[in-house]
Structures are given as structure tokens and as C-alpha cells.
Write a structure and sequence with these properties.
Elements: H1 2-5, H2 8-19, E1 26-30, H3 40-51, E2 56-59, H4 65-72, E3 80-83, H5 90-98, H6 100-103, E4 109-113, H7 115-124, H8 126-132, E5 136-138, H9 148-162, H10 166-174, H11 182-190
Parallel strand pairs: 1-4, 1-5, 2-3, 3-4
């Protein structure tokens, strides 16, 4: 049961329950490299099992911020998983940031993003990033949390590619000198230091 309790769907469902119906909760899920939106369906099914309510999966490709606001408010209380951010511009993220209060709703919002998408959100939508806080999870191949083996393997790959170790990445992030590359966002989240993103 302990392994089951570590899955992001469970974490999000638990947080939504603890925060209550009017919590205005926002989350970020980082899809595994190369996986994109493939894990959304199993994640949504798992979330439904815990919440007892089907989450709405909403592809925002081509939406303007007004379109997104309208869709999020109809209805305003269901959990929503947002997809389709991969090709969005910095201008779109800035518009979301400026209009953040118009997107607030009683139901939870889950941003399904690539590591690059999280990097862009942090760069162009700092108020949204602040609103999300520490509610950032990395998703494994099956739509649940990465297994410990997947996590260790990915951390090894990142360390080998960038010729850095975990401590160096954390030190650079704390000093605000870490390059603004998506892989470093993923690295920090995998280390449990999403607070430094």
C-alpha cells in the first residue's frame, strides 16, 4: 500500500480532499521525456478512482486565454487536466499569468507539461508558478509516479549528459545561477527540490 500512496494521482486526490471543495488547487505534472500526453488516460482513470469523480481532460491547443477561462468555468468545480501547452508561446503564458485570477475555480487544475513547458511557465508566468507552489510531480511511464528505478536512471542520465552531480545542481539553483534549460527543471523536481524551480 505504501508504493500506491506515492503515486501523483493519489497525492493530488488526497490534497484536493484535504483542501476541501473551494480550494482553488493547481498542480503541475511533468510527463516523461518523449512520452508527451500518452500517460494522461491512465492518470485520469486513477484520479477518478480516488476522487469518485471523472476528471475532465481539456486540450487547449489553439485556445485564447478567454477560451480557456470560459471552458474552465463550465462547470467550475470538476477536476480538470489541461493539455496542449507544448507549442504555446511565451506571450500565451504571460497572458495566463496576467489573467490568473480569471482562471481560478473551485475544482482543481492540473497542468500536464513537458519539462520545457515547466521551464516556460516559470519564465513567462511567475505568478502561476508561485500559485502552484510545491505541487509539482514527475510522471512515470504508466501515468503514475516514476518508480525509484526510473528516477535513479533519469538522474544518472542527466548527470552524465551535463557532467554535473546533484549537489552542484542544487547549489547553482540556490544561487540562482542554474541555466534555464528544461532538463534542469526536471532534475530539481526529481531531487524533490521543486521549490528551487
Amino acid at each position: 500500500m505504501a508504493d500506491f500512496a506515492q503515486k501523483p494521482a493519489y497525492e493530488i486526490a488526497r490534497r484536493l480532499e484535504v483542501r476541501g471543495q473551494q480550494s482553488y488547487s493547481w498542480f503541475i505534472l511533468i510527463a516523461p521525456p518523449g512520452e508527451g500526453e500518452a500517460g494522461v488516460e491512465p492518470f485520469a482513470e486513477e484520479l477518478e478512482a480516488f476522487l469518485g469523480r471523472e476528471p475532465r481532460v481539456l486540450d487547449i491547443t489553439g485556445f485564447l486565454v478567454d477560451d480557456l477561462r470560459s471552458k474552465l468555468q463550465d462547470p467550475p468545480d470538476d477536476p480538470v487536466i489541461l493539455l496542449g501547452f507544448n507549442e504555446r508561446s511565451g506571450e500565451f503564458w504571460s497572458s495566463i499569468d496576467v489573467n490568473r485570477s480569471g482562471l481560478e475555480r473551485s475544482g482543481g487544475i492540473i497542468f500536464w507539461l513537458s519539462a520545457k513547458g515547466v521551464s516556460e511557465l516559470c519564465t513567462y508566468a511567475p505568478n502561476v508558478r508561485s500559485f502552484v507552489g510545491g505541487s509539482i510531480f514527475v510522471v512515470g511511464r504508466e501515468g503514475s509516479e516514476m518508480s525509484p528505478e526510473e528516477r535513479r536512471g533519469r538522474l544518472r542520465d542527466l548527470a552524465a549528459y551535463f557532467r554535473m552531480n546533484d549537489d552542484e545542481v542544487i547549489r547553482l539553483a540556490e544561487a540562482r545561477k542554474l541555466p534555464a534549460e528544461p532538463e534542469f527543471v526536471e532534475w530539481l523536481v526529481l531531487l524533490g527540490r521543486g521549490d528551487l524551480v
